[in-house]
């Protein structure tokens, strides 16, 4: 096995896999818990009425997909990588079915995230390249249609993955019992279940082509092209702004009204550029994880033994990078969008106010009055806040 790995992969891949696999569960668990919280905040903030826009609707759909991936990955990491109390037998039929489900579920919703990122790039390019047609092409109806299409079509694109794996029963004997040493003490002649790649080499090769090209490389190429176009538009816009600033220098005979209009256009353009840069950062994170996976998947399609001897050595690492990419969007939004920061701050204050004020209000009431009012306290507080 080591010789095959060295022949198909970089030197030291097996040692790296053994070392990192001990840490992966804990790293992934932390990322998933933090990422679940941040994506929940993203959904809460981006779905606010004052944040309503086509771009934010797509970002909300993206956050939902990322949240589902992380919530599902938590039990997988606990089961496969972390030992809590008595060791859990990984090879029961039920747990093997769960791992089977995990492989399909996580890939499906990650694919949804990728194509929503492509949709986001298209919408943003239309907004800055064809602003006069933006409201027509990227209206709310078309945006909802694009989001729903991603959630409906991507599961069908990922359906071939279902046929790539199979659950295989195996008898535990004195010869292979060492393979399951991490499980509970397994009695002799007990049946365990393993999730293995299909023995049909042609089928697995075809699925690898679909995985690497359609699910990874095609959206990556689309993101690369759209990102390049967005950067080109940003450069052109920045050059135009600099020329505008030179022409808007106040002169003795220049109307003050025109100067104010130019300043307003400059500020509006600056906000548009900040939004575009934020979205470019999101797209860049997707590319940093999707391109390596696509290339490794393509190598597995060309050389079937590559998947077992090399791709699998870096499977946990690629999972961690994908989870990390899905968890840091909150940081990008806060650092690059003033509107997001302000809306998040207002939402946080409202939640704190709603949590603290009922207790203060109830403490001032007579016990009989408290019983009489009951659940009306929260309604009063929220109504009082809205009036303020």
TrEMBL record:
InterPro entries: 7TM_GPCR_serpentine_rcpt_Srw (IPR019427), GPCR_Dmsr-1 (IPR053219), GPCR_Rhodpsn (IPR000276), GPCR_Rhodpsn_7TM (IPR017452)
One GO cellular component, as annotated: plasma membrane
Residue ranges constituting the G-protein coupled receptors family 1 profile domain according to the UniProt record: 38-333
GO terms, molecular function: G protein-coupled peptide receptor activity
Annotated keywords: Membrane, Transmembrane, Transmembrane helix
Transmembrane segments: 26-46, 58-78, 98-123, 144-165, 206-231, 278-300, 320-340
Biased composition (Basic and acidic residues): 254-272
Subcellular location as annotated: Membrane
One of the Pfam families matching this protein, by short name: 7TM_GPCR_Srw
Keyword Hydrolase recorded: no
The family this protein is said to belong to: Belongs to the G-protein coupled receptor 1 family.
Name of the protein in its database record: G-protein coupled receptors family 1 profile domain-containing protein
Lineage: Eukaryota, Metazoa, Ecdysozoa, Arthropoda, Hexapoda
């Amino acid at each position: 096995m080591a010789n095959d790995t060295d022949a198909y992969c970089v030197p030291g891949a097996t040692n790296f896999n053994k070392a990192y696999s001990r840490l992966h569960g804990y790293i992934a668990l932390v990322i998933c818990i933090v990422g679940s919280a941040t994506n929940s905040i993203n959904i809460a903030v981006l779905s606010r009425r004052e944040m309503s826009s086509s771009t934010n609707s797509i970002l909300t759909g993206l956050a939902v997909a990322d949240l589902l991936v992380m919530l599902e990955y938590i039990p997988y990491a606990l089961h496969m990588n972390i030992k809590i109390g008595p060791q859990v037998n990984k090879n029961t039929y039920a747990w093997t079915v769960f791992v089977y489900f995990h492989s399909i579920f996580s890939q499906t919703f990650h694919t949804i995230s990728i194509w929503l990122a492509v949709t986001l790039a298209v919408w943003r390019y239309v907004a800055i390249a064809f602003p006069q047609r933006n409201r027509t092409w990227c209206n709310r109806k078309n945006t909802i249609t694009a989001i729903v299409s991603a959630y409906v079509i991507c599961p069908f694109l990922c359906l071939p993955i279902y046929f790539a794996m199979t659950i295989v029963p195996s008898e535990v004997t004195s010869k292979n019992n060492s393979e399951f040493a991490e499980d509970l003490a397994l009695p002799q002649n007990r049946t365990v279940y393993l999730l293995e790649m299909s023995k049909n080499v042609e089928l697995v090769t075809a699925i690898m082509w679909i995985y690497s090209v359609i699910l990874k490389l095609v959206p990556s190429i689309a993101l690369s092209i759209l990102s390049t176009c967005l950067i080109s538009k940003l450069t052109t816009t920045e050059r135009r702004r600099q020329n505008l600033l030179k022409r808007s220098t106040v002169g003795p005979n220049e109307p003050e009204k025109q100067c104010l209009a130019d300043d307003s256009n400059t500020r509006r353009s600056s906000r548009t550029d900040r939004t575009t840069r934020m979205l470019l950062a999101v797209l860049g994170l997707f590319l940093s994880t999707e391109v390596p996976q696509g290339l490794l998947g393509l190598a597995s399609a060309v050389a079937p033994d590559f998947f077992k001897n090399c791709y699998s050595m870096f499977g946990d690492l690629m999972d961690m990078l994908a989870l990390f990419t899905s968890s840091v969007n909150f940081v990008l939004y806060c650092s690059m969008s003033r509107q997001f920061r302000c809306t998040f701050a207002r939402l946080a204050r409202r939640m704190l106010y709603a949590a603290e004020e009922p207790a203060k209000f109830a403490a001032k009431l007579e016990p009989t009055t408290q019983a009489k009012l009951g659940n009306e306290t929260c309604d009063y507080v929220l109504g009082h806040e809205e009036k303020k």
